[in-house]
Amino acid sequence: MPTYQPLTKTGFAQLKWSRNSDYRFAAQDSVAPLVAQELPSACVNRPIAFIKQGDTYMPAAVQSLQPGQNLYVGADGRWLTPYIPAIYRGYPFALVPAENNQKVLCVDTDCSLIGEQGEHGFFDDDGQPTAPISEIVEFLKQVQSNRELTQRLCAALEAEGLIVPWSIKVKDASGQARPIEGLFRIDEARFNALDADAAARIHQSGALPVVYCQLISMQHMQVLARLAESQSQAASAEAPPEVDIDAMFGGQDDTLKFDF
Question: What pTM was computed for the model?
Answer without folding.
Answer: 0.83
